[in-house]
Amino acid sequence: MAAKILFVDDRWKEEGWDEILRGRLPKTVEVLFEDRGYRALQRLRENPDVHLVVLDLRFEGQPKQGEAVFEEIRTHFPELPVIILTVLNEAPVAVRLIREGAYNYFLKSELDYDQFAREIENAIGYFTLRAEALRRTDAGLIIGESEAMRDVLRKVAQAAQRESPVLITGETGTGKELIARAIHLNSRRRTQPFWPVNCAAIPEELVESELFGHERGAFTGAAHPRRGAFEMADGGTLFLDEIGDLSVEVQAKLLRAIETGEIRRLGAERPRRVNVRVIAATNRNLEELVRKGQFRQDLYYRLAVLRIHVPPLRERREDIPALVRYILVERLKSRKEVSDEAMALLRAYPWPGNIRELYNVLERIEATVEANVVTPDHLAPLLSPPEIEKPNVVEQWVRRVLDRQAGWAELNQNFETRGEILRAILDGIIKRWIETKGERPRGKDLADLLGVGPNHLSQILHQAGIKLREYAPLARR
User: What is the CATH number assigned to the segment(s) 3-133?
Assistant: First the structure.
C-alpha cells in the first residue's frame, strides 16, 4: 500500500530508526523524520497525505513536550492514528493517552521491531478505512482529493468528535447536507436520527410548528398534536439548512432551545426536554445579515462554534474528473466515457450551480446522448454561461409561462430554486401581468399560472425573495 508516516523523535538518527524501518516496512511506505516536536504540526500541514504519526514522548528529557505534541495532533488532525513510543517509567502516561485517542504504545526497552512494523501497517490500514468512513454517507460519497476537500474532511473529523453546534457555509449545490450527514454518521449519535429541515422551504407562518411542534387546537386546523423537528431529532442531529432565512422572532426561540435544551410546542403549557445536536448551513453571508440586523448576533456565535466552509467546484477543479466518474458510474449506472477534450471542457467551466449543476448536466447527457463517448459537441449546448444568456432566457420563460406553455415544474427543473435567473423570471411574470391587466396578480392567480397550490406558491416566492404586496398596481404608479 502506498502510504506516508511521520516519525517524531529527537534521537531518531542516533537510534538508527531509518535503517530499522527501511528493512521492515514495504517499499511503498515512505517515512518522514522530525526531531523537533514543535515542528511536527508544520510537517503535517506540509504533507497532508500522511497516514500515521509515530511519536516519542520524551524530547530533550522532557516528557511533557511529547504530551503537548500529541494534544496538538489530536486537535488539528483528529483523523490521524498516533503510535506512542515511551520508556518504562512513563508507561502510565502512554496508557492515559490511549484512553484519549492514541492508537497504541510501545516501550522502547521491550520493543520487538518486527511486531512494531506490523502494527504500523495495521495503523495505516485503520487510517485508510477511517478516511473512507468519513467520506461515506447514506446519501452518497464525498468525492475529492484536493487540498481544499482534505481540509473539509479534517474538520468533519474534528466536528464528529465533539458535541458543539456546527455552521456549514458554501454556495448552493456544493454538498453542505452531505457534509452534515458525514459529521452525524461519524459521531456518537450515529445510531440516532438525522433530521434535515430546509428553513427556506417552510412558509413563515408554519416555521414554529415545524421546529417545535404543536398541541391540538393550537391554531386553526391543528386537529391533532404534532411533534416538531427538535423532538423528531431527539438523541440525534438536527440539520437546519438555509438557516439565514429564519425570521428574527423564530431565531430567538431557536437560540433558547439550543442553550437550554428545552422546547415548547405551540399551545403547550410546559416545555419539553430534548437532547439534540444542531448543525446549521447557509449559502448567505451571516456576518453581513448580523450587521444589517437581520440575524441575531448571539445566535450566530452560538451556531458558529465549529465552522466548515465547503468550497465551490470552480475552486477545486482537480476533483472534477473523479466527480464525473463517480456520478456516471455509481449514481447514474452509466457505461459512457468522457473524452479527454470533453473533460478539459468540464474542468474549464465555472459551474455556477456547483455539483448539483454537474450532476444535472451528466444526467441530461446520459438521457439524450446515444454515443458511448462524450465529446465537447455533446457538452457545448449545456455549458453556456447563464449570465450571457440571461436577458433572452428571462424574456423567453416569462412569455412561456404567461402563454401557459410552461409552469413551475419546468422552471424548477431548469433553474436553481434560489437563483438570480429564476427570481428575474418570477419578477418579470408579475410585472407583465400588471402591465397587461393594470393590477397585480392575486396569489390565486399566480398559483394557477404556475400550476401549484397556494402553500407551495408561498414557499416559491419566499425562496426567491419576492413579496407580492410590494408590487404596486399600474393605476397607483
Answer: 3.40.50.2300
Same topology, domains 138-309 and 313-382? Answer is no
Amino acid identity, residue 102?
A
Phi, psi of 362 (to 5 degrees): -65, -35
Separation between Cα atoms, residue 320 and residue 372, nearest integer Å: 20
50 touches 56 (CB < 8 A): no
**pLDDT per residue as tens digits for the range 73-127:** 988 888 889 999 988 778 888 898 998 889 999 998 888 999 999 999 999 988 8
Q: Which of 212, 215, 351, 317 is nearest to 274 (CA)?
A: 212
Is the pLDDT score of 387 beyond 60? no
Instruction: Give the residue from 470, 361, 384 showing the smallest Cα distance to 426.
Output: 470
Question: What is the SS3 string spanning the chain?
Answer: CCEEEEEECCCCCCCCHHHHHHCCCCCCEEEEEECCHHHHHHHHHHCCCCCEEEEECCECCEHHHHHHHHHHHHHHCCCCCEEEEECHHHHHHHHHHHHCCCCEEEEHHHCCHHHHHHHHHHHHHHHHHHHHHHHEECCEECCCCCHHHHHHHHHHHHHHCCCCCEEEECCCCCCHHHHHHHHHHCCCCCCCCEEEEEHHHCCHHHHHHHHHCECCCCCCCCCCCECCHHHHCCCCEEEEECHHHCCHHHHHHHHHHHHHCEECCECCCCCEECCCEEEEEECCCHHHHHHCCCCCHHHHHHHCCEEEECCCHHHCHHHHHHHHHHHHHHHCCCCCEECHHHHHHHHHCCCCCHHHHHHHHHHHHHHHCCCCEECHHHHHHHCCCHHHHHHHHHHHHHHHHHCCCCCHHHHHHHCCCCCHHHHHHHHHHHHHHHHHHCCCCCHHHHHHHHCCCHHHHHHHHHHHCCCHHHCCCHHHC
Strands 262-263 and 272-273: antiparallel
Give the architecture (CATH level 2) of 138-309: 3-Layer(aba) Sandwich (3.40)
What is the distance between the alpha carbons of residues 249 and 259, in angstroms, rounded to a whole number?
Answer: 16
Fold of the CATH domain 313-382: Helicase, Ruva Protein; domain 3 (1.10.8)
**Taking the model in full, what pTM does it have?**
0.68
Task: Indicate the burial class of 224 (C-beta count within 10 angstroms; 0-12, 13-18, 19 or more).
Answer: exposed
- 394-445: per-residue pLDDT in tens? 777 888 888 887 888 778 766 665 567 788 889 999 998 888 888 888 888 8
